User: Fold this.
Amino acid sequence: MHRSALKAPAVDRHEDHLGGIDFQRIARLVEGEAGIKLPPAKRLMVEGRLRKRLRALGLDDFSAYCALLFTQDGLARELTHLIDAVTTNKTDFFREPEHFEFLVDTMVPTLLAQRRERQPLLKLWSAASSNGAEAFTLAMVLVDLMAKRNDFRFAILGTDISTAVLAQAQRAVYPAEMITPVPPDLQARFLMQSRRPGTRREVRIVPELRRLVSFSHLNLMDESYPYDRDVDIVFLRNVLIYFEKRDQAAVVRRLVGHLRPGGYLVLGHSESMIGTNVAVRQVAPAVFQKL
Ligand SMILES: C[S@@+](CC[C@H](N)C(=O)[O-])C[C@H]1O[C@@H](n2cnc3c(N)ncnc32)[C@H](O)[C@@H]1O
Assistant:
């Protein structure tokens, strides 16, 4: 017999799997920290996303990863990376575009009609901002509107739990493929093309817009949010779907508490306010106005 046939086969990392018990421990941890539900059907997704972490940490298998994660020191060091890995950050410029039309045609005119000051400051909050595409879409349409009516100012805050997407939002650099939904005139005004030959084509948001948008880390599961309580418009789109009903209601109540009366809360089209028990009226699909 050939000698090598007697050797134990080398462990191929890609054949190692995230076992059911380890997955359940991770799922409990993630739900406890970030409110994100990870039902058994998500095990393969989590396994795939954590493989990169195993490689980055030089670990051989998922048991070693869990051994590291579930120690006090390991958790403190790894939690941010784990949250980055398990969050779904899919977003787009001009995603669910009717909301931006409603913003320009109805929300802003209605809000401005209630204000007495000259050039009032409108405060907007993209409360699960991902990489900033939603916040910068708001900035583009509002600068465009300001050029037409010149009677308001605005500031936008973007918050998210994932540090990886916040870093991209702060750089404001995006792959060129992402800008297809941006109308050509807005592309020409607000996006700078990268000119480095031989690299993937990228665009950067112009400084004029970057100055109007700031980003900050926030876990929506926190009991209170350290932000202003006279916000005009909150975009909370495509994040409630990841939470339990009880957490959805608590997040909506806290955010509505940050809106001024008459302010708007905008959800994703597949999300609802059922069971949240807040004093709002629905004014358009997935758009609610605080009473
Ligand atoms: C699918 S993206 C939606 C982005 C954007 N609002 C949109 O509709 O295009 C969901 C975002 O919610 C964030 N997220 C998930 N759980 C969160 C939490 N507990 N606190 C804050 N952000 C959270 C994720 O990191 C992710 O970037």
User: Anything to note?
Assistant: The CA atoms of residues 94 and 183 lie 9 Å apart. The pocket of S-adenosylmethionine is lined by residues 34-36, 87-91, 95, 128, 130, 134, 160-162, 165, 218-221, 237-239, 242, 268 (CB under 6 Å). The two ends are 82 Å apart (CA to CA).
